[in-house]
Every structure is written in C-alpha cells, then in structure tokens.
Amino acid sequence: GLSQYSSDPRTEWDLSAYSTRDQVLEAMRNLRYKGGNTFTGLALTHVLEQNLKPDAGARLEAEKLVILLTDGKSQDDANLAAQTLKNLGIEIFAIGVKNADEAELRQVASEPLELTVYNVLDFPLLSSLVGKLTQVLCTRIKEKSNKDNTDIPVNTGPQLSPTDLKISAVTSKSMHLAWSPPLRAPQQYRIVYYPSKGGSPKEVVLDGAVSSLQLSNLTSHTEYLVSVFPVYDTAVGDGLRGVTSTLPLSSPRSLRVSELSHNSIRLSWKAAQGATQYLVLCSAAPDGAED
C-alpha cells in the first residue's frame, strides 16, 4: 500500500489493490509526485486510520510495517502519532533524504534504530538502500511472526467496534462526542481529531469503560475530522469517524456613528457574546492608510 502526504495525506493504493510485483512497479511508474508541506504526524495518523484497516486489505494476523520516506522536518508532532502506532505493535522504518531531521527520524522509528533508521544525501542514493532494507524487513517479519503465539481476534464487527457516533453541543470552541460501545469492552479508546484542511492531529486516550468525551480549546469556524478507535490487547477495532464544524465567533452588530466633530466620532454597537476585547480600525476613505 502507498500513501503520499504534504498537508493532506492521500492514499495512492491500498494493500489489496495489487497482487503481483509487476503491477506494483507499474503503479510506481505512474505515480505523480505530491509537493507541499511536511505534516508527518498527520500522515502517520492517516496510515493508521485509513490504510491499516481490514477494508483496505490489512489482515489482522499479518505483521504491520510502515516505511516512512521524508525529505524534511515535520511541521506537526510526528512523535506522538508514531508512538501511537508503535504502541499498537506496528513497526516503523524511517528513511530520510536531503533535509530530513535525523533526530526526528530516530524518535519516530522503532527499536533497534540501527536497523530502522536510514538517511541519504539525495534521492538517487535511495537505490543503495534497497538490498539491505529488503533483507532487514523480511528478517524482522520472520522474527516477529515466530514470537507472536497469541490468537488475534478476526471479528471486527460489533463485537470489537463501537457504533453510532454522535457529535452534539457544538460551540465555537468545543463539541461533545458520544458513541455506543462494542459488545466486547476495549482496554482503551483513542480519539484523534484535527482540522480537515490540515493541522496538527491531537489525541486523547480514554479508559475503555468510558464512551463519551468533551473536546475543548478548538478553533472557531473550523471543520474537524474526528476518529474513535477501540484498542485491545492484540487488535484495534474499526474506528468511528465524524466531521463537524465549530461555530463562528459571534460578531458585534448594529454599528452606529454619532457625535461627529471636526476631529472625532463616537461609535456604538451591540455587544458580541463572549468577547473580552474589541479591536477598532479606522482609515480615511476611500484609500487612506489605516490609523
């Protein structure tokens, strides 16, 4: 499977899209490079939410590996998102090119770092990593498969997944989330939320006995994507997703002008609910500089 990212991650193809090496190579040849920003945390969250799910071709019994390829320092918190993946048993390999931040690569990658962190000076040099990386990946999969003797639940329906996400009491700064828990209570819930037009994802971890959450300190007049994931010992249930916009801040109304003199005017207006201060700007019409 492959996803590209800048400020908005994009799935190019799912794990189940191709079944032969030639098909994958052909897809790579047709791939169009996506330029832009470097929101690595958002990208890793996208991989977890979108690419490592059964309906995207992820098999619950298979080892999960993520190879991160980046040529810059992340503009959001990549470490938090990476830690979430690693806590779920997903192994991360970090490959840096050109301006990548090696300290960040080492934070994001799984242990042992001597096997999971790579850095090259330019894109053509990536070819020098292919042989070694392939060998390391295959070896790690075999090692992990031999260690994992636990039975991983295969049922990802209502037994493991919450349902009926409701978003209510939306204000300019907050919203309330509630959902129906799965038949089998999870150990924890992971709630991930972020602005749909790009922004640093934030995460809240709740005890599995809780099925509601108040999100606060949000940005006004902003569309938010919200995901709720149940986390078990050996699996992650299907997540619930929702989209809601916070309300705009209330505005002052009924602006009136009075008491005009040669060098002054009086302004009055109806108060804006919740405002603690007002900023008043004036300029000489039509093209005067703002005073």
TrEMBL record:
Residue ranges constituting the Fibronectin type-III domain according to the UniProt record: 161-250
Subcellular location, record wording: Secreted, Extracellular space, Extracellular matrix
Keywords: Extracellular matrix, Secreted
One Pfam family it belongs to: fn3
Keyword Translocase carried by entry: no
InterPro entries xrefs: ECM_Assembly_Org, FN3_dom, FN3_sf, Ig-like_fold, VWF_A, vWFA_dom_sf
Highest taxon of the lineage: Eukaryota
Positions of the VWFA domain: 1-133
The name this protein goes by in its record: COKA1 protein
This protein's encoding gene: Col20a1
